């Protein structure tokens, strides 16, 4: 079986095929079949000229241009003394009185709306709490009125059914009662 020479990969920078050594070969077929004497003598090869289009085809993009950068203005003398930054900040702000007033007005309006919303939410929550309290009070009064009509044994049965037994200390009886609720009868009571 004879070896088929591998196809060289194109160089991503120049778009030209690379040989085994990484150098640009003009004819990859002839370099693979050349004799060992020619490989020992490597002459410097002429590098191809790259253009902007070649680089763009290889995936490179241009960056920001230096043409549009403003030249430094030497209008005022440079002062290298320490400062508190107030003069520079005043220059950056420009007409800060109007912008500050507009910002203050917008913030005040937003705060007033937020405060109104919070007050309404608090009133609604208080109303719901009061309704829940009244509902619990009515249920408690209805239960008390109903309990007045019941006998002691009936009250205790209701407490047992609700799990509110007053003699919760006797765990054996309580566990037997719970077992009977599920239909388990042990036979010794």
TrEMBL record:
Where are stretches of biased composition, namely Basic and acidic residues?
89-101
Residue ranges under compositional bias (Polar residues)?
72-86
Q: Which domain of life is it from?
A: Eukaryota
Q: Under what name is this protein listed? A: Casein kinase substrate phosphoprotein PP28 domain-containing protein
Q: Where is this region: Disordered?
A: 1-101, 146-176
Secretion signal: which residues? Answer: none
